[in-house]
């Protein structure tokens, strides 16, 4: 029999075990008033909406849902004088602190900044994740968006020089941006001595991981206090420019964990199709063990086990259970079936279920059985709750690594334009798969995917090119994934004929109307020129980065007889706002569309959405997608 010594998983290994499984939902932070924050200066307020112009202007509307720091010119004068006079109390008045404190924390939010603004989120009031208008910065430093700020200490042993983000994930000023943080608080012994530094498991901005498994040994610059503590509030810097927040969600984790105890097992040999078949068999072995583990199996295949024990939860609440397994598995808690996967031949499955539990001990039973010789036995049981640490309840050896691992397959661009045909899951949604797409990679780092079946740019991004692992690993599924700050636009045709409010742009491909003619390669640049015809209109399209590499230019040439009502759809979404600089902010300010000054685009309502449309005739139309 194999060794039954359990070994708890570290958080790093746990992230691999849980795979793509859904995590416990975060708790929304209400933004109806300032009651969730400590007393602050008048520069902090709750508003209903905010529009920030790319050039620096800002307008707000009354209401609820957005936390806004509106630092004006007068405030800058006050703060500058306070700094010169060392009036720390005045500077402190421009901060906002949560009324609650946290240890380990998962935090998710959206933020918006105008041009040139500077703020920061201090975890426990001591470790700053920088917020900054870093749009267009080529080599980000610790002071750029997502950077971990340095401190200003000079004594040996107290200096921390900060950490730059590994990529610039910033969007243009005035757009809503997304951030997710997983933070581990410093650890202390019974005497209060620090035994482990604070750590960021990850910081993800606009879908790009900018930090992973980063240790922060000391407080960063400008903390609430230099003394590190188990608990502290979030504080947000409010003295260096405007910043807005919405959709703040969090999960503050205590030191408590769920555990198992009084575990016994029964080991069986044979082919089992259902869990109940194990109960009718005489076990070949049985005994007491410290943790549930597949290591009790003497045969790697055509065998199974039943585990019985107690699940101990530290407090009343909702809990999320995850079972990852090769083979069949069934879980009962309090004699009630929670999950059942009757797949003895499965190579890998993940099942999840939520339930309410009272604090205390709950009897559990797990059946595990396997008839899949191409994979070793693998079983991981994971639990998490609203305020407890995520825990793996099975032993380390119960879930060995995949015996046939494969490295990710990344496709670089190189020094020339690169083209790659594949499927695209629009907005990362498999149910919205586009099958006639081509990725175009530019050496300057701005890329896009063109839908040949619709004559449309489906998405564009800055950063590395594509992850082709889903397309080429093993059998593959034919799809690739953009690898940077990705902005999806819309599905369907760019070109349509609209003569009434009920006319829509074609959403489905009709061969009799739309005829793709593929693409030619522009000799000087290596870039594709896309060609198609729509109802007799001949179209050629070139897409290329702007000179500053911050936006994608679409240049669409239309020739032939152009019917009345011919329009281009430039963008769609829940809302579209005409900005003071002449551009349009699309879909709750996710990206901008900028046209020539003489272009007369309009916003229309169609099918519950807003559309930005432009009437066209023969000639060339040019506009930019900015994000």
UniProtKB/TrEMBL annotation:
GO terms for molecular function: hydrolase activity. It holds the Pfam family 3keto-disac_hyd. It comes from the Bacteria. Residues 258-395 form the PA14 domain. PROSITE patterns: PA14. SUPFAM superfamilies: Anthrax protective antigen (SSF56988). This is PA14 domain-containing protein. It comes from Haliscomenobacter hydrossis (strain ATCC 27775 / DSM 1100 / LMG 10767 / O).
């Amino acid at each position: 029999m194999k060794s039954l010594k359990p070994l708890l998983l570290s958080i790093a290994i746990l992230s691999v075990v849980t795979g793509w499984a859904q995590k416990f939902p975060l708790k929304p932070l209400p933004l109806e008033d300032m009651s969730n924050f400590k007393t602050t200066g008048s520069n902090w307020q709750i508003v209903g909406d905010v529009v920030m112009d790319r050039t620096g202007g800002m307008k707000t509307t009354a209401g609820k849902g957005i936390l806004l720091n509106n630092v004006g010119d007068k405030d800058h004068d006050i703060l500058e004088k306070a700094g010169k006079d060392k009036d720390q109390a005045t500077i402190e008045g421009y901060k906002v602190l949560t009324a609650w404190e946290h240890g380990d924390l998962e935090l998710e939010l959206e933020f918006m900044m105008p041009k040139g603004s500077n703020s920061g989120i201090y975890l426990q009031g001591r470790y700053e994740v920088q917020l900054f208008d870093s749009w267009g910065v080529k080599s980000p430093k610790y002071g750029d968006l997502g950077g971990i700020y340095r401190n200003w200490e000079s004594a040996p042993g107290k200096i921390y020089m900060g950490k730059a983000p590994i990529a610039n994930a910033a969007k243009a000023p005035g757009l809503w941006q997304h951030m997710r943080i997983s933070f581990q608080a410093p650890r202390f012994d019974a005497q209060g001595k620090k035994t482990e530094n604070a750590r960021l498991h990850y910081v993800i901005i606009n879908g790009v991981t900018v930090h992973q498994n980063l240790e922060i040994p000391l407080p960063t610059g400008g903390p609430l206090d230099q003394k590190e503590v188990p608990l502290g509030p979030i504080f947000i810097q409010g003295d260096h420019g405007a910043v807005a927040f919405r959709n703040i969600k969090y999960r503050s984790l205590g030191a408590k964990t769920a555990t198992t105890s009084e575990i016994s097992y029964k080991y069986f040999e044979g082919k089992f199709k259902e869990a109940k078949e194990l109960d009718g068999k005489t076990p070949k072995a049985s005994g007491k063990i410290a943790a549930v583990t597949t290591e009790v199996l003497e045969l790697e295949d055509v065998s199974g086990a039943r585990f019985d024990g107690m699940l101990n939860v530290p407090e009343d609440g909702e809990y999320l259970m995850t079972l990852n397994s090769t083979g069949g598995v069934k879980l009962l808690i309090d004699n009630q079936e929670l999950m059942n996967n009757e797949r003895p031949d499965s190579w890998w499955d993940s099942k999840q279920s939520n339930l309410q539990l009272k604090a205390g001990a709950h009897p559990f039973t797990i059946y595990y059985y396997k008839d899949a010789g191409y994979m070793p036995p693998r079983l991981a049981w994971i639990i998490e709750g609203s305020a407890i640490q995520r825990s793996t309840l099975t032993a380390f050896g119960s879930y060995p690594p995949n015996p046939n691992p494969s490295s990710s397959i990344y496709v670089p661009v190189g020094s020339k334009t690169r083209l790659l045909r594949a499927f695209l899951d629009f907005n990362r949604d498999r149910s919205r798969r586009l099958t006639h797409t081509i990725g175009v990679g530019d050496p300057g780092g701005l890329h896009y995917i063109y839908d040949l079946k619709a004559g449309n740019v489906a998405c564009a991004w800055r950063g590395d090119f594509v992850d082709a692992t889903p397309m080429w690993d093993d059998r593959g599924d034919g799809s690739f994934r953009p690898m940077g700050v990705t902005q999806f636009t819309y599905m369907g045709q760019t070109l349509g004929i609209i003569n009434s409010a009920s006319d829509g742009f074609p959403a489905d491909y009709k061969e009799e109307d739309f005829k793709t003619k593929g693409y030619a390669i522009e000799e000087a640049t290596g870039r594709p020129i896309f060609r198609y015809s729509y109802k007799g209109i001949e179209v050629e399209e070139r897409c290329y980065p702007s000179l500053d590499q911050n936006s994608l230019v679409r240049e669409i040439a239309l020739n032939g007889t152009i019917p009345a009502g011919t329009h281009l759809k430039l963008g769609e979404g829940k809302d579209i706002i005409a900005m003071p600089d002449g551009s349009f902010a699309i879909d709750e300010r996710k990206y901008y569309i900028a046209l020539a000054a003489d272009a007369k685009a309009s916003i229309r309502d169609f099918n519950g959405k807003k559309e930005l449309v432009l009437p066209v005739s023969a000639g060339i139309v040019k506009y930019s997608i900015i994000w």
